[in-house]
Write a structure and sequence with these properties.
Elements lengths: L2 H23 L7 H16 L4 E5 L5 H8 L3 E6 L2 H10 L5 E3 L12 E7 L10 H11 E12 L5 E6 L2 E7 L4 H10 L4 E7 L13 E7 L6
Parallel strand pairs: 1-2, 1-4, 2-3, 4-5
Antiparallel strand pairs: 5-9, 6-7, 8-9
Helix pairs in contact: 1-4
């Protein structure tokens, strides 16, 4: 699959799923206290650094963007899917959302205090991850922080149907050590990691552990 095919398939699939995805996962953070704690600790660190603009990359319908805003961050959302962006704007009209790709963010070099990739790198082919992390490094200011969340594992899951719709989505799972290695190579050394076991509730069931890595661009790196 070429880069254009990968981006097109992801964009089209999430345009198709936007409304159903939002309905299914609207309240998922409510049942994830450790996830909320990770976001809270990350937000506090960014504020203690002096704050600044924060990009929620792959924001989907904007629930994490809104949560981070509630934690006091100056955050905006970016998503590849126009359908998701339109939904996020309707759900959170006071916040800023824009279309964009994490492979080429429309932000100046060194302009962001933080980047959040909350389960959004999971659709990126393995060979493209170094480019994504290099792009995160480019847009982060010296001392800027990155939070990456993903499912732990080795084998990808491929879906051609979801919520009754035809899609073309591959969900890639990663090992924390591998992601930490790639981030370090991109100039974003990891200084905190959390891995939790799957959460199973009546409405949402996870099948794999979940990982949360926090990296930081060293001060003095342009």
């Amino acid at each position: 699959m070429t880069e254009a095919d990968f981006l097109r398939a992801t964009r089209t699939s999430y345009d198709t799923l936007a409304a159903d995805y939002d309905e299914q996962f609207r309240d998922v953070l409510a049942g994830r206290p450790l996830d909320r704690a990770v976001l809270t600790g990350f937000a506090e660190s960014v504020r203690e650094d002096g704050g600044g603009p924060v990009a929620d990359v792959g924001c989907g319908p904007g629930r994490v963007t809104a949560h981070l805003h509630g934690l006091g961050l100056s955050v905006f959302g970016v998503d590849l899917s126009p359908g998701m962006v339109a939904l996020a704007r309707r759900e959170h009209p006071k916040l800023r959302f824009e279309e964009g790709s994490m492979l080429a963010l429309d932000q100046p070099d060194g302009s962001l205090a933080a980047v959040v990739a909350w389960y959004s790198t999971i659709h990126v082919p393995a060979e493209r991850l170094p480019e994504v992390f290099a792009e995160f490094h480019r847009v982060l200011a010296p001392g800027g922080r990155l939070l990456v969340a993903f499912q732990v594992g080795d084998d990808p899951l491929c879906f051609t149907e979801a919520f009754g719709h035809q899609v073309d989505l591959t969900f890639r799972r990663w090992r924390p050590d591998r992601i930490a290695e790639l981030l370090d190579r991109a100039g974003l050394p990891v200084h905190a990691r959390t891995v939790r076991e799957p959460v199973r509730t009546k409405s949402h069931t996870e099948s794999t552990p979940q990982a949360f890595l926090i990296a930081r661009k060293p001060v003095g790196h342009g």
